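The passage that follows is intended for readers who have already worked through the single-chain material. We present the inputs for a multi-component assembly, then the predicted structure in tokenized form, and finally a short commentary. You are encouraged to pause after the input and sketch how you expect the pieces to fit together before reading on.
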Amino acid sequence: VSPDQLQEYLYAQIPLSQAMAVRAVAVDVETVVLTAPLQPNINHQRTVFGGSACALATLAAWGLLYTRLQSEQKRADLVIQRNSMEFERPLAGRFFARAELDDPQRWSQFLDTLDRRGKARIRIVARLWQEEREIAARFSGDFVAVQARR
Amino acid sequence: VSPDQLQEYLYAQIPLSQAMAVRAVAVDVETVVLTAPLQPNINHQRTVFGGSACALATLAAWGLLYTRLQSEQKRADLVIQRNSMEFERPLAGRFFARAELDDPQRWSQFLDTLDRRGKARIRIVARLWQEEREIAARFSGDFVAVQARR
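Having made your guess, compare it with the prediction:
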């Protein structure tokens, strides 16, 4: 999955990503980085609306899991089960979200469980920041993959 | 604050609320109910994108705190500090978020602390559901109010 392919997929399937003007910056099996400009995501304090930050992190986390499953040639539907975010400081410009597996060592167990039971859960984390600034928010999401029926 | 006033304020200040086609259904000091249609918030599974659900809940929670502070004639900037969401079942149509104080008895203590220290924290919860269906997701957010400088 290339950044352009992921971005096209998001725009086609999740129109909010287009309203947010999300761009895919980097996509591989280790990490997915998405970015969005301030303007369509601004709030009354001229900083990034918390809901936009949550949405960008969710898209990045979902994108990472999608990319990894594609690279393993697994077909699975992905459902988010829970998420949490900690906001440490405001984002006041173009912002980024970088998603990674919470525990890369759990990946093979996740695939085994998915094969064996047709369903498995995994945690993805994301960090959010603003250009040239330190981390501003942290996201954690638990996703359930359910093997797609043929 | 009437539903129309809250909706106008959201559309003017938080453009994502307009992209999501959010409408304010009920606004008082006890509860704020917002709704949004599926189409601008859809995902690849034809259900509500988790980021949209998170954004609607955040708007409802923020709207409740804003309404309560207005009714007390307090001017404060509101910042979200953390949030979490549990997704129990998919939302597959027009969806709603109802925000309430997590613990109404803490309100007077919150106002006291805001007056005394110029800053106070409070938790707002929201339930999400789809028309004529049971609760599909639960949100909890901690907001910090910071007294606005005159």
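Commentary: The longest strand of chain B covers residues 135-147. The helical segments of chain B are 3-13, 15-19, 50-71, 107-117. How closely did your sketch match?
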